[in-house]
Amino acid sequence: xxxxxxxxxxxxxxxxxxxxxxxxxxxxxxxxxxxxxxxxxxxxxxxxxxxxxxxxxxxxxxxxxxxxxxxxxxxxxxxxxxxxxxxxxxxxxxxxxxxxxxxxxxxxxxxxxxxxxxxxxxxxxxxxxxxxxxxxxxxxxxxxxxxxxxxxxxxxxxxxxxxxxxxxxxxxxxxxxxxxxxxxxxxxxxxxxxxxxxxxxxxxxxxxxxxxxxxxxxxxxxxxxxxxxxxxxxxxxxxxxxxxxxxxxxxxxxxxxxxxxxxxxxxxxxxxxxxxxxxxxxxxxxxxxxxxxxxxxxxxxxxxxxxxxxxxxxxxxxxxxxxxxxxxxxxxxxxxxxxxxxxxxxxxxxxxxxxxxxxxxxxxxxxxxxxxxxxxxxxxxxxxxxxxxxxxxxxxxxxxxxxxxxxxxxxxxxxxxxxxxxxxxxxxxxxxxxxxxxxxxxxxxxxxxxxxxxxxxxxxxxxxxxxxxxxxxxxxxxxxxxxxxxxxxxxxxxxxxxxxxxxxxxxxxxxxxxxxxxxxxxxxxxxxxxxxxxxxxxxxxxxxxxxxxxxxxxxxxxxxxxxxxxxxxxxxxxxxxxxxxxxxxxxxxxxxxxxxxxxxxxxxxxxxxxxxxxxxxxxxxxxxxxxxxxxxxxxxxxxxxxxxxxxxxxxxxxxxxxxxxxxxxxxxxxxxxxxxxxxxxxxxxxxxxxxxxxxxxxxxxxxxxxxxxxxxxxxxxxxxxxxxxxxxxxxxxxxxxxxxxxxxxxxxxxxxxxxxxxxxxxxxxxxxxxxxxxxxxxxxxxxxxxxxxxxxxxxxxxxxxxxxxxxxxxxxxxxxxxxxxxxxxxxxxxxxxxxxxxxxxxxxxxxxxxxxxxxxxxxxxxxx
Length: 864
Hints:
Layout: H1 2-13, H2 17-28, H3 32-45, H4 50-62, H5 66-79, H6 84-96, H7 100-113, H8 118-130, H9 134-147, H10 152-164, H11 168-181, H12 186-198, H13 202-214, H14 219-227, H15 264-271, H16 280-290, E1 299-304, H17 337-340, H18 344-355, E2 359-364, H19 370-378, E3 384-388, H20 394-407, E4 412-416, H21 418-422, H22 424-430, E5 436-438, H23 443-454, E6 465-469, E7 472-475, E8 499-500, E9 503-504, H24 516-519, E10 524-525, H25 528-540, E11 546-549, H26 558-570, E12 576-581, H27 588-596, E13 599-607, H28 611-616, H29 623-635, E14 639-646, H30 653-666, E15 670-675, H31 683-692, H32 698-701, H33 714-728, H34 738-747, H35 752-764, H36 768-780, H37 786-799, H38 803-816, H39 820-837
Parallel strand pairs: 1-2, 1-3, 3-4, 4-5, 8-11, 11-12, 12-13, 13-14, 14-15
Antiparallel strand pairs: 5-6, 6-7, 9-10
Region (Disordered): 237-266, 271-290
Domain Radical SAM core: 492-718
Keywords: Iron, Iron-sulfur, Metal-binding, S-adenosyl-L-methionine, TPR repeat
């Protein structure tokens, strides 16, 4: 009787082997919905038995219902606390929900229960990679491989971690091992292509991408997903329109208690933009000395902020909103050098304030860890703080303003730049530490604002500003743009930069471009005399005589361009330069004169090869115009760069094929493929908001850096990009042939740059004696950038197997100026020499570029 009772109790508390076997059989057949139905029945009949909850969680997870699976696994974990599979699955779900700390905890618990679980080690490595802890992630992936050498995912993930750490050759080996284990591993082929591209092995990269595409679905499916909808916005936090968030809610955490890691003086030296010429405080003293009743000069701090609060070893920063790194970043974010560079607008405003006698300090905090910023701001008092904001660093701007308000509650905080200009009232409503917004062109507005502050008048009603008045915000009248740009103080009187602007504004109406928001559509020019003086001042302080002319369209007035080139030649300003322009503003004679005046490279906004797309985005050009200008520029040996935009509104396989055909026909020396981005104030952004019901609140309620068609669809974009590159047949662009370079020299025999470029063509063709002769001729004609000459000599010597001679040329170049190219080549050659002694015989491949821009930045420079 007792035995029967015990049997009955057993049957009542757990499912029979037959019942569990049925569920498992359905799972093995991939019939997850039916298995889930049976498992749900088991949880209802046996709620205190873990099997049903575990299987129901697994089926729910396999059906893609991650959020629903989590409580099921948590219930199972309570009933089966020693089951490592359950804890591992919980970790996976938290990882996919981007709750990384919880994910790490459960994966580590699973490994505590089963220390040699290769899958769990691999999962933990992925979590740590997403947390940016790449060294720990590497160790996890290696442990996974140790436990299962044939786990292709672990080799792939190890490759990704090593690539992020900059160990490219090791990453290559990992990706190749992953594809050897799993020959259809499309992601591994794609990543192998990426790392080969990064290593400069472009042809091999293309071959790897072709293998990736061969194992994927048709690329047009990825394109279809990218164009409908234009933006993946389902996870974006939207309204209410302007939540009443006061400054305290957005305060950066752990500020007051943070001990300064470095002295304010050392941080000032590290991040302050050096100034030259007259010191503002000295001028201020002179001004004050002339008039005892004059208002005192103001202490002004102008700041280019980071993208967000950057964590460091001595100060952790919570991810996500309000001010931390994006929760979905998944490791280091690739940032262009251009974005790291302090803006010309900030330097120009600083110059006006310095000229007026104010004490001005400018800081580039783009790369600064938040711990450094806290210490610097806490110890740097001022009357006025000005902060520059783009879309990408808007949250860094908000964090910085809140920090300033915390430490300097009585200071005036003003912000400007493209982001604040397009959304001035919203910026004030969301970032309540800010007092005023400078809208549009800032010099005259900022100086009038300073006059109000210095004379203790309220900073309200000033044209070109928005302001806070208690809980209300208001927008002032539009300020007319500066009519005579020559009246502005040149920032080259005070600061060094290789970026110059000779005009402001662009008459074009491109649907994607946000530049007219600041400068307007009417072009205003600095005079030729002003520009020549600006060039001379800039070059006097630069280690490399190269300038980038950053006008929207340098050749908009072609007669002015001719006059400018004549003035450069007439004043014997011996430097190389580049510029951006449009193909509807460039005739043959203009290109010829530009080349004689030192122009080495032109960047052309092409965007698309499809007439339909060009019309839709209001580009105002045709593919035929692009080809005409390209041919003319290449006749004079210029480097031609195409800016191409992909996934435009209405993009189809046919329109992309038209872009492919145009690039192959034009054969530019380089080109960019950039996905469509949505910038406030542009037609494309307005269309997006109208189509998808978005408002500007998304910029203040979410942690994304920028919004583009790529958002949440990176794999699809990568697939389309790989197809484009493979169809074009080159990643880096098209080189000049020896014959083409020889023809250029016939056109321009007395221009030294064309002889350097001919030498480079000879070098690449293996005609080393001719290469040396061409370099000698360039030196005789006075080529201005010595490191380019020395680097070419080093490459020629290495090609002749004159290793010591090659190293000597590179040492001389590094002593002159250790730019990124010559220092990189020196380090590479020195390491190669060391490796030869250990028996390695791989060839040493040096960068043989003759592009001036590749020799501008110091090798140890973290930000220009």
